């Protein structure tokens, strides 16, 4: 165990990246759980990742504007498609989301088939490289996050199906390139599951607290034990969610008694 690795210059940007992801994913995750379309995040995140892979296959600069545009366009097309399928076949929407995820994942594998670094590139998109996030990457994400939150909290009751999917696609596109597909999904769903039975007035703040604690815990543990940060944070989100869920249930039971 080496406490000297707790370097704020490395962990600081990573933690800020986590906060940006949580800022949009906590409220959107609670809406996803309410709508019963849990796997939409995986599907849209995978489609956004497919856009990044396609841009890379065309030789575009990894952090360039073209790649960002490709990711956003891919996610938007996915959002438009899911809007149409929910309207056309609402009874099988979850199944269609799963099918879309598999198709996007398979397309990414095919595009990377002849890339000598394809396996590493795919791993980065799935598990993420949160410790390598720079402050320069966080600035555009911060602006996009502020825009999404402003639109969501001001027009939440009026955005409708299409508006929800568009905002969701924008949020996921920004997040997946910061922390990877697995962390994006975990940040969306695990805090929402943990507070699902809490009073409505406490759900949002509860989700934010759970996510923040989990990111701090995950980053610190991954640094101390030299483990992959993304994977440790995913498990931290699960453990923190379980703890807060049990705590919330016990507190509720005491109040009833």
Q: Can you tag this structure with a few keywords?
A:
mainly alpha; 257 residues; 10 helices; 81% helix
Describe the fold and architecture.
With 257 residues, the chain is mainly α. Helices cover 81% and strands 0% of the residues. α2 packs across α7 (160-179), α8 runs parallel beside α10 and α9 (200-224) runs antiparallel to α10. The model has no long low-confidence stretch (mean pLDDT 86).
**Helix and strand composition category:** mainly alpha
Mean pLDDT: 86
What is the quaternary state of this protein? single chain
Q: How many strands in all?
A: 0
- Low-confidence runs: none
**Share of helix, binned:** over 70%
Q: In percent, how much strand structure appears in the residues? A: under 5%
Q: How does the overall form come out from the CA principal axes?
A: globular
End-to-end separation: 44 Å
Count of helical regions: 10
The largest sheet is: none
Q: How do you describe this structure in short?
A:
By secondary structure, this protein is mainly alpha-helical. Helix content is 81%, strand content 0%.
Topology:
Layout: H1 8-35, H2 40-57, H3 65-88, H4 93-111, H5 118-127, H6 135-155, H7 160-179, H8 181-194, H9 200-224, H10 229-256
Helix pairs in contact: 1-6, 1-7, 1-8, 1-9, 2-3, 2-4, 2-7, 2-8, 3-4, 3-7, 6-7, 7-8, 8-9, 8-10, 9-10
